[in-house]
Design a protein that fits this description.
318 residues; 5-stranded antiparallel sheet; 7 helices
Length: 318
């Protein structure tokens, strides 16, 4: 068995198996896979990693789930390639299944892949030994965890910054606006947080799209069609869900707040010539007036989401 760090990517005509949740590369390809190339089991990982194992050296392939080992540490789900001495030649973390049987059949292995249950895996997997030439396939890109942490910090920073900025703008309103400043500050804070998340999504997708465009253009030796590589936007399932939730929550909040501020202001017996009192009355009336349009918009978004889920479900059945 040998490892080639910068090997070729294999022939797609050979039987191949992919992880259930494979990570995509920069250009959308899934580099992590197992192939049967002639009489060799070839495993590809990130960074151009290529591991070759002769079929004659393989005794069996195990697919085991995640479970807790009482006497030791934590064993995560993975695919294991075993040799004739029941030692591990290759470890591929992640959930596997589709395509593994076809790869084994093409290699002429006498024993088909075994999918271990939690109980059998807890007994058999800890007793395995790693061969001296045991390799572990890289199923994540280099620096994946650091990138994930940086992405989370960047998204949180823009979200919090947008929320603080929006709330600060609301508090800058003049005093005659009255108690509506607090409500406006809350609304602008929520809108700013959503806008910050949208801006983060748009910025990261735009940068990734530009990198893809540059890579494809360099490989092709000419400028690539930008429209096919730069179709980016800031919307995501999370932002859509958050927007729909905010709209749904704003309807009763505005209705109750508008009615309450009108009743409290008028019950105080103050004159409407006073700036704050007049501002409260106007703000309460506006809150009540915008409630029906917001309710209609929230209902439309809810119905559109239901239709989209139904269409996706029926599309998968056809």
């Amino acid at each position: 068995m040998r490892t080639v760090v910068f090997g070729r990517l294999g022939d797609p005509g050979f039987p191949a198996a992919y992880p259930v949740e494979g990570r995509a590369g920069l250009l959308g390809e899934v580099p992590v896979r197992l192939l049967a190339e002639g009489k060799m089991l070839v495993a590809y990982g990130f960074g151009g990693q290529r591991v070759e194992i002769p079929a004659r050296s393989i005794r069996q392939v195990w697919i085991h789930p995640e479970f807790e080992v009482l006497a030791g540490g934590r064993v995560r789900e993975a695919l294991l390639v075993l040799d004739a001495r029941h030692r591990v030649l290759l470890k591929v973390p992640g959930a596997w299944g589709p395509g593994v049987r076809e790869v084994c059949q093409h290699l002429g292995l006498h024993k088909q892949p075994v999918a271990l249950g939690p109980m059998s895996a807890s007994r058999k997997v800890p007793s395995l030994m790693d061969a001296e030439s045991c390799q572990q396939l890289r199923v994540r890109p280099t620096g994946g965890r650091i990138t994930l942490m940086a992405a989370g910090l960047g998204r949180a920073g823009l979200c919090v910054g947008g929320g603080i900025g929006g709330a600060s703008l609301g508090l800058l309103l003049p005093a005659p606006v009255g108690d509506a400043r607090i409500l406006v500050a809350i609304g602008l804070g929520v809108a700013g947080a959503l806008a910050g998340t949208w801006l983060y999504n748009f910025g990261t997708r735009f940068v990734v799209g530009m990198i893809r465009w540059a890579v494809v253009s360099r490989r092709a030796g000419a400028p690539a069609p930008a429209g096919r590589l730069l179709q980016v936007g800031g919307a995501s399932p999370w932002t859509k869900l958050a927007t729909s939730t905010v709209l749904a929550a704003a309807v009763p909040v505005l209705a109750i707040w508008g009615a309450a501020i009108e009743a409290i202001t008028l019950s105080r017996g103050g004159t409407l010539s006073h700036g704050a009192a007049l501002g409260n009355v106007i703000a309460g009336a506006l809150a009540i007036l915008v409630t029906p349009p917001l309710a209609l918009l929230a209902i439309r978004r809810f119905l559109a989401a239901r239709h989209r889920v139904r269409d996706d479900f029926t599309g998968n059945l056809s």
